[in-house]
Amino acid sequence: MRQFDITAPTTIDDAVDGRHTFLAGGTTLVDLMKLDVLTPPRVADINALPLRGIGADEGGHSDNGNAGHGLRIGALERMSDVAEHPDVPPAVRRALTLSASQQLRNMATIGGNLLQRTRCGYFRDTTMPCNKRTPGSGCSALGGNNRGHAVLGTSDHCVATHASDLAVALVALDAEVRLVGSDGARTTPLADFYRTPGDTPEIETGLRDGELTTDVVVPHPERAAHSTYVKVRDRQSYEFALCSVAASLDVRDGVVVDARIAAGGVGTIPWRLPGVEAALRGEPATESAFAAAAEVATHGATPLTHNGFKVPLLRRTLVRALLELAEGSTR
Ligand SMILES: Cc1cc2nc3c(=O)[nH]c(=O)nc-3n(C[C@H](O)[C@H](O)[C@H](O)COP(=O)(O)OP(=O)(O)OC[C@H]3O[C@@H](n4cnc5c(N)ncnc54)[C@H](O)[C@@H]3O)c2cc1C
Ligand code: SF4
Question: Which of 37, 104, 165, 323 is paired with 247 by a 20 to 30 Å CA distance?
Answer without folding.
Answer: 104
